[in-house]
Each structure stands twice: as structure tokens, then as C-alpha cells.
């Protein structure tokens, strides 16, 4: 008997069946767990694609205008037809109740710093805002499922890890609004309305909307060690020729609207030569470009000059006049003149000398306030073009017209706005160290500026485009970016983009 028991104890036949029976539930469990993980991963990927699309669509509307959040919410509603699979209810339509959209003014510097659906990060900083002009990021989060059977992220496991077989999958996405400006020259102008007193300082958009820019002449010289109103400087764009970039009207690259790097070492001769191409003046080596369409002049180049294709040398006898300068330049307001006070007094000498008739009271078409005020230089310039007055001859013996004569290429005239430039406006008083230090800064905005006259040399016999001190650039501000503008700048130059950050 004892031997029979011992033999049975030592008999190993069928042991595999016992091991298989013990391990089979474990193997099945792991298989089901693998299937669950695959299904959960599939649901997460589908949901992530959905919230990514929602974040991008809503962020694309956050352009700083008063209705940006309203438009963003409308974009979200329009896109909420995406379907998610593998939820407990089968194929579930993503609905507004399934997500939380929060608009943010910024995001944490590190991606490892978490964000709640309400926009509060792990350090307790609240990035959320309801100000449509302040927000630039969209945070989209899938909500926890109130009813697991109906929630978009509700996942029912085949192999439950606990008594509750469902759990939530909650992906999150953050997208931001990025605006670039492409059609601009690599020049910035110091904000002429910036002061050291916050109570009196204005943004360029505020000044434009209130009519403070209209009709004023602005004069700008290169940035020195203490930049401020009345100065200009360069933006770094890695171009081989600053002169060519200014002459053609594009920096050759797109700039982030909110991040510019300034460049010191302004070569004034290159700025001078590049700008003057628009007035049918081709100095130095640019004289070989007088057949190149990219270097064409404007269709109205009247500048008070008798002859010459290289230097700006206006006549002094009053028989031809450029667009007139402003009064009380730099008196009480650095870098700018008074606004035009009386249309007849201001414009009659110019009109009589160049057209031989009484001033016709040109309307102030581009005045942003809509009020009847004396016409700006840009409005008079456009009026001359629109009414066929460019060919009028000025008083004898100068007999100047506004028709280009030095440019020998084709299609020289269909460009009335070649005297317009898109230019960054910088708060130079607040950014002095950054301007001098080649670091990034955020511009106050962008402006479309009209060049009143060519840039002349202090000594007209200096080299055309290399050496010698220049007189200021004389300009008017025609439009600005932002919600208070006429939108000519935005439509032509800005490119809106949205990108995912998380």
C-alpha cells in the first residue's frame, strides 16, 4: 500500500494539464487586458484627434478682436460632428456636453506643468480669461462622463480591474493663435505716442482710432543710444541687401507679429536708396534696376524736382512743390507735426504750383473717424491719381509732372500704393535695452505708412547710396493693425495660423 502511494506521488504524467488549468485564467486575463488596452488606446487616439481639431479651430479665431471668443465658440459648434468609437454606448457623437473649452492668455513654460480644464496650472496660476482681446490660446478637455453609458470618453473594459467596469479617458489639447506679417520692410518706427507717463501714453491703435495720426507729418531718424519717438531702426532678417528689401517692399521673410529682433548698425545710404526707388530715383548700383518690375516706382512720383534720376534735388523757386511738410514739427510732440488745421491755407500753394488751379477741397477719405477734416497727403495723392491729374505740369520753367520718366521697364503705373510701406511700430522707451541688445521684443503694432517725399542727403554731393548723413524720412500713417483699423493692412499683409502646443 505504501509503495502504491509512493508511486502515485512520484508519477508526473498529466502534470502539464494541471499547470495549463492553473495558468489558463491568467493567460485569458492578460489577453483580454491587451485587447482592452488596444481598445482604450484606440478610443484615446480618436478623442485626441477630435480635441486637437477643436483646439485648432477655436484658436484660429483668437485674433484679438472683440468678437474673437464668439467666433471661436461658433467654430467649435460647427465641428462637433466628429464621432468616437469604442465608448460604452458604441459610436458616440461628440457633443458640447462632452468637452470643456477654456480660453487662455498664456500657457506654462514647461509642458510637464499640468493644466486643469479650468485653465489653472499645477503651480496654481490661473491662465483663463473671458476677455476676447486678451486670449490667444484654446484649451479643450474631454469631460468626465456623468453617465458612463453616454459619455464620449466612457470606456467599458472586457476585463474589469475592479467592480466598476467603466472608466474615463480624458485627452486634452492646447492650441494657440499665431499671426505673421509677410509683406513688410525690415524697418521699425518708434511709437510717436509713447510717453513715460502711463496716463498720457497711447498705443498706435488708440492714436489712430481717435484721429490723432490723420493728417500729421511724421519724421524719423535712425535709432541712437536713447531711442524714442522720432526714431527708426532695423529688424534682423538675414538679408544680404537691406537696400533691395526696402526697394522691393518685402523683408524676404515672414515675422512673428509678437516677436521681433532688432538690428543695430543702420546703413542709412541703403535705406535712402531703397526708399527713393519708389519716387523714380535709382542711385548708385540701383541704376541698373530701372527696367526691373520689382523696383518699379509709384504711379505718382511728383516731388518738386525738375530733372534727375539718381539724387533728390528739389527746386527752390516754388515752381514745383512736393507734398507740403507739417507745421510746428516736434513742438510739444516729438517726431511729428500738428494736424492740418485749414485745408485752403495748407493746400493752395501746392495745388496752384502743380496744377495751376484753385484747390478743389479734396475729401478726407481715409480719415478713420469719418469726420470732415482737411485731406491728408495720402488722400490728395490718391485724388490726383483717381482724377487723371498726375500728368499736370507744374509752373514754368520746371514743368514737373507726376509721371515716372526714369523707369524704363513695363507696367510702371498700375501701382498707386508703391509709396505705401508696412512697418512695425515699437515702444522704444520701454524697450531701450532690447533695441540695443539684439534681443526679441514685442512690437506695439504695425502700420501702413505713406512716404511723403524722397529721402535727401544733408550734403547732396555725398555718395548716392553709401555714405553721408540723411535728412529724416517724412511719412504719414494710413492704417494700423487691430480692431480699430480700416483693415487694409490686415487683409494685405497678415497671415493667421493656429498651432498645437500640447
Key features?
about 500 residues, alpha+beta, 2 domains, six-stranded mixed barrel, five-stranded antiparallel β-sheet, about 20% strand
Summarize the structure.
The protein has helices spanning 2-10, 15-59, 68-79, 204-209, 242-248, 268-276, 343-355, 377-386, 432-437, 488-493, and strands at 83-87, 90-93, 99-104, 137-142, 154-156, 166-168, 172-181, 187-190, 218-222, 231-235, 255-256, 260-263, 420-426, 440-441, 445-451, 473-480, 494-500. By secondary structure, it is of the alpha+beta class.
- Report the order of strands and helices: HHHEEEEEEEEHEEHEEHHHEHEEEHE
Query: What helical percentage do the residues reach?
Result: 10-25%
In whole angstroms, the N-to-C terminal distance is: 75 Å
In total, how many beta strands? 17
Radius of gyration: 34 Å
What does the average pLDDT come to?
79
Shape by Cα distribution? elongated
The description of the largest β-sheet is: 6 strands, mixed, barrel
Structural class: alpha+beta
